[in-house]
Amino acid sequence: MPQSDDFNLVLAESVDSVDALNAKFYGRFPYPWSPAKFESLADPYFQTTMVNQDIGDWQHKTLPKRPNIFVAGCGTNQALFTALKFPQASVRGADMSLTSLATCTENAKSLGVTNLQLKRESLNHIPYREEFDYVICTGVIHHNAEPQRTLEKIAAALKPSGIMELMVYNRFHWIMPFAFQQAIRIFSEDEGTTDFEGELPIVEKLYDELPRGTMMSDYLNQLRGTDESLLADAILQPVAHSYTVESLEQMADRCGLEILTPCINQFDKSEGKLPWNLEFRDPELRAKYESLPDTRRWHLSNLLLMESSSQLWFYLQRKDSGRRRKTEHELCEEFLDTTFAKSGTTQTNYLKNMIDGTYKPAPTSIPYPMAQPHPSVKDIYAAADGQTPMREIFRRLNLDTAFHVANPARLNLTTTAYPYLKAVAQAGQNGEAGDPNASRRLASSNYEKLKSIRDRKSNG
User: Fold this and answer.
1) Alpha-carbon span 289 to 278, nearest angstrom
2) Domains present along the chain, CATH in parentheses
3) Model confidence, pTM
């Protein structure tokens, strides 16, 4: 395939050559490193319930209680984390790095995990067909020579009824790293080099050589002193593509997939981001923004926020799933019409012995979730009693049920990132198609907003 310097593609000669390059790179720099602890929850179905709620399944049926899960490009520990989160699942992890797989195997043995299988294989050549209920692929396909081809293979492994969790690089997050990666290749005198060891000393020298106060100098010094594997993954990775919401959606569509909803991840959570909606004080601007289709609205946020926008981390499903995709507005209406009870379980931490690298359980379990709900939703949380629909709770608390209020509450209370409330199934409520009146209420609400705007214009 033709070489390109649009992103970091000068070494992307062919699908198989890039597979070999990634195997070499992550063999030298296994990523991520083994954590200080692993965790498991006493309720074996807790995570399954919350993943279902992430996509607006308040009946908790889309992801079955004993799912078949594929972690595509699992690195050193993602498949193991997944096996611990879903103890009733059958988990398969695949990676090209033997070093990463060996680390994962050793840690799984230390933890006594038995529901995990690991295999060295290229995602570009996997044979699976409609086998998995849940496919997790985060931070992987953009390191392949032809990401669309890789995604097509992964999509084929997904059952028609299944869901996919996918993360690719946000273009606006990677402008500077890609520029630095290309600069390092030039310093190496041969843009086709794969001498990662020879590139590390160049990085060390550049810390103190670049002019102070420049964006690149500030970026590099944030990485100074970090773990070697993290540093290498950030600024030496040999092949990388990046996307906007729009280009990701287009690639997904070509692979027979559609984006469902954003997935709040550990990176956005640590920065306090709730993707992907902006708040506008101007009522006309807000109405226009909120009337956009989901992915169009998210793409607009991506463009306006640029490097401050969220990770491109989403849930997807096959377009032939037979399930109608729910809009984010519909998810909010169903959230308001659903009854919730407080959720919770206990967590066991497995702590790393820094001498021999093994993991041992802490002597006592701790409540989960550990942190309290965000102050903005603490009153809603306190009022959830397993009997009162959320819309009535909002009414009692004098809260607006508009999208810009209800959606942050949904995200901050009922998702895997903020798992404080669990939907309570009630007779005649929240069937497969959701509340039959939700769409009508939503359409009426949007009509009134737009009518109000037209009236103001005509009177002005």
Assistant:
1) 9
2) 15-172+240-326 (3.40.50.150), 176-233 (no CATH), 330-453 (no CATH)
3) 0.89
